[in-house]
Amino acid sequence: MAGIWARRARCVGLTLATLLCLAVPAAAQTYPAKPIRVVVPYAAGGITDILARALGERLGAALGQPVVIDNRPGANSQVGAEIVARAAPDGYTLLVSADTTFVMNRHLYAKLAYNPLTDIVPVSGLGISPQALVVHPSVPAASVTELVALARARPGELNYGTFGIGSSGHLNIVLLQSLTGTRFTAVHYKGAAPALTDLLGGHIQMMIVSIGLITQAWQTGQLKVLGFGSAARIATFANVPTIAETLPGFEAASWYGLAAPAGTPPAIVARLSAETQKIFRDAVFRDKFLAPNMIFSIASTPEEFAQRIKADDAKWGKVIKEANVRVE
Q1: Rounded-to-5 percentages of helix, strand, coil across the chain
Q2: Nearest CA-CA partner of 293 in 43, 54, 125, 100
């Protein structure tokens, strides 16, 4: 009798396990059955928002359900990230955000509203936006080498604008200081636009900022570009050197990615990633949305995106710790 009950128990266990295994593919097969919300933890109009809306339009068409963009700015992207981290892991609430959300925040804040390593799962990289090291025309430097020499001769005298403590515009200068033994003075702004306005007015001397934001001012002689933060020279501006040609390995860029709440079924994550990669491979999409904003595709598998996050987490964690950069 005991043997019969044991066999029955094993059968019941196997049946439950089989049903559980089948449940995820079944959910993925019917997904999506309702509109999808994409949370953007920044205000409308910025590059993150532009990418999210462009992706949402195409993703909605591919999946047969509307994709609604929900801008939830605040606390250096923590507000929106926490909404996604606490959402049901069913594929109907997604996150499009910048590297700050995935990497920098956990090193900048003693207490964070979400854990980027355990509360969200990578779906796909989206785009990367190389930055430019720019100075006001009054600064007597025409190259990275000359800027470094000037800064060494006048430590702390050159002011640079950032778009917030811990922003890429801040941390890339911190890294530059670390690599060159120089010291610049940070002036923190609430966004890149006001910092750029003060740079054009000569109130600050330099900054590192998205190429797309400075192209017009640079081409009209209002700014000098000393180098781009891309890994290689950009074909459109082939005469502009990379910063890495002077400082090997130096890259200055912001990147953006798509993520979901932890626990989202792998089949749904895989489908979202595959559709995203397909969209970003499309030449029309690239020409319409990426090229005008100087954004380059980094659409990838979830595993590849996770590797990018891991590599940058190690890089920026070290820079932030050594420079003792903290946000209260």
Answers
A1: 50, 20, 30
A2: 54
Residues in a beta bridge with 131? 210
Pairing of strands 93-98, 36-40: parallel
pLDDT tens-digit map of 152-188:
999 999 999 998 888 889 999 999 999 999 999 999 9
Looking up tokens 């917030």, which residue turns up? 164
Question: Could you tell me which of 276, 235, 283 has the C-alpha nearest to residue 256?
Answer: 276
Q: Which two tokens stand for residue 182?
A: 């120089």
Q: Which residues contact 100 (CB under 8 A, 6 or more apart)?
A: 76, 77, 166, 167, 168
- DSSP characters over 229-296: -SSS--GGGTTSPBGGGTSTT---EEEEEEEEETT--HHHHHHHHHHHHHHHH-HHHIIIIIGGGT-E
pTM of the model: 0.82
